[in-house]
Design goal:
Elements lengths: L4 E2 L2 E2 L86 H4 L3 E4 L5 E4 L5 E5 L5 E7 L2 E8 L5 E7 L5 E5 L4 E5 L2 E4 L5 E4 L5 E4 L5 E4 L5 E5 L5 E6 L5 E7 L6 E6 L2 E6 L4 E6 L1 E5 L5 E5 L5 E4 L5 E4 L5 E3 L5 E4 L6 E5 L5 E6 L5 E7 L5 E8 L2 E6 L4 E2 L4 E6 L5 E5 L4 E4 L5 E4 L5 E5 L5 E6 L5 E7 L5 E7 L2 E6 L12 E4 L6 E5 L4 E5 L6 E3 L11
Antiparallel strand pairs: 1-2, 3-4, 4-5, 5-6, 6-7, 7-8, 8-9, 9-10, 11-12, 12-13, 13-14, 14-15, 15-16, 16-17, 17-18, 18-19, 19-20, 21-22, 22-23, 23-24, 25-26, 26-27, 27-28, 28-29, 29-30, 30-31, 31-32, 33-34, 34-35, 35-36, 36-37, 37-38, 38-39, 39-40, 40-41, 42-43, 43-44, 44-45
Length: about 525
C-alpha cells in the first residue's frame, strides 16, 4: 500500500501513473475519507472578489488590520505594521516583524510555534509548513483571525461584525456567515468557535480544522493540505460512513455495512472494494485505521501526515488470553481485547488522563460509553441514552489496560483487561467478582476483616454458600441445607485477582478457582492432582 497525499505531495509508485488509482486502494491508505457535512449545508455563500486574484496579506497593528491585497488602492497609505513582502522578498518564509514584534516564541509540540505578546496573549501561530494564523483583538476581545500560507497569501479572514456576528471570507471569493458564536483562543494555541448548536469548530496548531458536534464527536475536518473529510454516525454513536474530497483527488465514500467497510464512488455506486478492520476518528480530527488482517495501525493527522505502525510493536498478550493494544501516539493502552473478542476502547490524553471509555461486544457493536464531561463522569448506553450511575470521582487505566473507577463514596471497581470485574468496599476489601460470562462470586467478612462467607454458583447454575464455622468451612445449598461432605479446611480469596483457593487436607488437594477459566487442582505439595476438578 502507498500513501495518496502526504504533506501535499504525491508519493508512491502509483502516483505518477494516474490519480484515479486512488479508487483502487485500501481504506487503510492515506485517509481519503470525506463525508458531506450536514452542518455546512445552510451556510450562506457570496462573492467576495473576482476569482483569480491572488491576495497578499497585510500585517499591521490591530488598528490597521489585515486585509486582502486586492482591496488596497495605490493611493492608500502604507500600513503601520509593514506589509508581508512577496515570496522572493521574504527570507525563509518568516513573518513580518511588524505583526509579531515584541512577541515570544513557544513550541506547540507538533512543529508549530505560538507567538505571545508581552501580556501573554497569543498573537498568532506559525505552523510546521510555514503557514500561519494572525489574531487581532479590540476592547471586546478577539476581533479578527487571519490565515495565510507560507508566502503570506491570505486564505481566509474571520471577522466579527458590528452586530456581534462573525463572517468568514475566503480567497476563492466565498463567504460564510457564522452567526454569533463564542470565540476563544486557548492557551495551547487552538482557536475555538462555539456554534449555536453547542458544537465547536476547532482550529488546531496542526494547521487544520475539525468541527465537533454537541457530543464532542468529529463531524468534519480539513487538514493542512486542504483534504476535507466528514463523518457520520449511527444512532448508537458508531462511525458508519466517511467520504473524502480534495484537490486533484477522486471523491469516494466508505460505508460500514455488516461489519465491513465498502467503497462507493461519487455517484453512490459500489466499487467492489472492501476493508476489514477498525476505522475511527477522535476529537482532534485524527483518523486511525487498524487493518483486521495485518493489525497495522495507520494514523492520519490534520497536519497532512500519515504514519503506519505494525501491530506487533504495540501489542501485549497476557496469559489470560487477553490482548492490550497500545496507542502509537501516546504509548498508553488504546484497547483491551478480551478472550472472546469483545473489547474496551480507551481515549487517553498525552498527560495520561482518561477522557472516555467505550465497550463493544464481540460483533463490534457499541454497548456503553463512559465520558468525562465538564468535570463529571456520565454513562451512556449503546444508543447514546444516559444511564444513571452513582457519582464517580475518577477513572484511571494502568499500563496493562485495567480500568479503575473510584466512586465518591470511597469504594471502587476494577475492570480487568480480560473482561472480568472486581468490586471493593471503602476499606479496600473485595466484595464481588464477575466474569464476562456473567458468573458472579460474592464475599463477606467478619468484624476482624477476615473472610467469613463466599457465595457462588455451580456450573449447573445452582447457588451455593460457603460459611466459616468453628474454624472450618461448610457448604450450603440454595435452601440453606448443609452438605453432607467433610468440611473444607480453608477458603481464601486473592484480593487483587479474585482467585479462590480451596484446601482439603484430608483429600490432599488444593483447588484454585480463577474468575475466568477452568479450576486447577493440585496436591498440597503443588503437584497436579488426578481426577476431575
Amino acid at each position: 500500500m502507498s500513501n495518496d497525499r502526504v504533506q501535499g505531495k504525491d508519493v508512491g509508485p502509483e502516483a505518477a501513473n494516474d490519480r484515479k488509482l486512488l479508487s483502487e486502494r485500501n481504506l487503510a491508505d492515506a485517509g481519503t475519507f470525506f463525508v458531506q457535512s450536514n452542518q455546512h449545508s445552510a451556510l450562506e455563500t457570496g462573492k467576495l472578489a473576482d476569482k483569480g486574484v491572488v491576495p497578499r496579506v497585510v500585517l499591521a497593528d490591530a488598528s490597521a488590520g489585515i486585509t486582502f491585497g486586492d482591496g488596497l488602492k495605490p493611493s492608500e497609505s502604507k500600513p503601520r505594521g509593514g506589509e508581508v513582502q512577496n515570496p522572493q522578498e521574504r527570507r525563509g518564509g518568516s513573518i513580518d516583524a511588524g505583526f509579531f514584534a515584541n512577541t515570544v516564541e513557544q513550541s506547540a509540540g507538533d512543529g508549530a510555534k505560538i507567538r505571545r505578546d508581552s501580556a501573554g496573549q497569543i498573537r498568532g501561530v506559525v505552523y510546521g509548513d510555514g503557514s500561519f494564523t494572525g489574531i487581532e483583538r479590540d476592547s471586546s476581545g478577539v476581533s479578527r483571525i487571519i490565515r495565510a500560507d507560507a508566502q503570506g497569501n491570505v486564505k481566509s479572514i474571520d471577522a466579527r461584525q458590528p452586530d456581534g456576528s462573525w463572517e468568514s471570507t475566503s480567497s476563492d471569493g466565498t463567504s460564510l456567515k457564522r452567526g454569533a458564536p463564542r470565540v476563544a483562543v486557548l492557551d495551547n494555541g487552538n482557536i475555538e468557535f462555539q456554534r449555536a448548536d453547542n458544537g465547536k469548530d476547532v482550529y488546531g496548531t496542526s494547521g487544520g480544522r475539525v468541527s465537533l458536534d454537541a457530543r464532542g464527536r468529529a463531524v468534519s475536518s480539513v487538514d493542512r493540505n486542504g483534504l476535507t473529510r466528514d463523518y457520520t454516525y449511527s444512532a448508537s454513536g458508531e462511525l458508519t460512513a466517511m467520504k473524502v474530497a480534495g484537490k486533484d483527488m477522486v471523491v469516494q465514500e466508505w460505508r460500514k455495512e455488516n461489519g465491513l467497510w465498502n467503497a462507493y464512488d461519487k455517484d453512490g455506486k459500489n466499487t467492489g472494494r472492501q476493508f476489514v478492520g477498525m476505522v475511527g476518528v477522535d476529537a482532534a480530527g485524527t483518523v486511525r485505521t487498524v487493518d483486521g488482517k495485518t493489525g497495522a495501525e495507520t494514523i492520519l493527522g490534520l497536519d497532512g501526515t500519515r504514519k503506519t505502525v505494525n501491530l506487533e510493536s504495540r501489542t501485549r498478550t497476557f496469559d489470560n488470553g487477553s490482548r492490550v493494544i497500545y496507542d502509537s501516539a501516546t504509548g498508553f493502552p488504546g484497547r483491551a481485547v478480551f478472550r472472546e473478542n469483545s473489547y474496551r476502547q480507551y481515549d487517553i490524553g498525552t498527560d495520561g488522563a482518561v477522557n472516555s471509555t467505550k465497550f463493544f461486544n464481540s460483533k463490534g457493536l457499541l454497548q456503553s460509553e463512559l465520558r468525562r464531561e465538564n468535570g463529571n463522569w456520565n454513562l451512556y448506553d449503546g444508543q447514546g441514552k444516559p444511564v444513571p450511575v452513582p457519582p464517580i470521582k475518577d477513572v484511571r487505566v494502568d499500563n496493562e489496560g485495567n480500568m479503575r473507577i473510584d466512586w465518591r463514596t470511597g469504594s471502587h471497581h476494577i475492570l480487568k483487561n480480560d473482561g472480568s470485574a472486581l468490586r471493593y468496599d471503602v476499606a479496600g476489601k473485595l466484595l464481588e467478582t464477575e466474569g464476562f460470562n456473567g458468573s458472579k462470586r460474592q464475599f463477606a467478612y467478619d468484624s476482624r476483616g477476615e473472610l467469613s462467607e463466599v457465595r457462588f454458583k455451580l456450573k449447573t447454575g445452582e447457588p451455593r454458600v460457603a460459611k466459616r464455622e468453628n474454624g472450618a468451612w461448610n457448604i450450603y445449598d440454595g435452601q440453606g441445607k448443609r452438605s453432607s461432605g467433610d468440611p473444607i479446611d480453608s477458603i481464601s480469596v486473592d484480593q487483587n485477582i479474585g482467585m479462590i483457593t480451596w484446601v482439603e487436607r484430608k483429600k490432599d488437594t488444593v483447588l484454585r478457582i480463577p474468575i475466568l477459566g477452568d479450576p486447577v487442582k493440585t496436591t498440597l505439595d503443588g503437584k497436579i492432582a488426578k481426577g476431575r476438578n
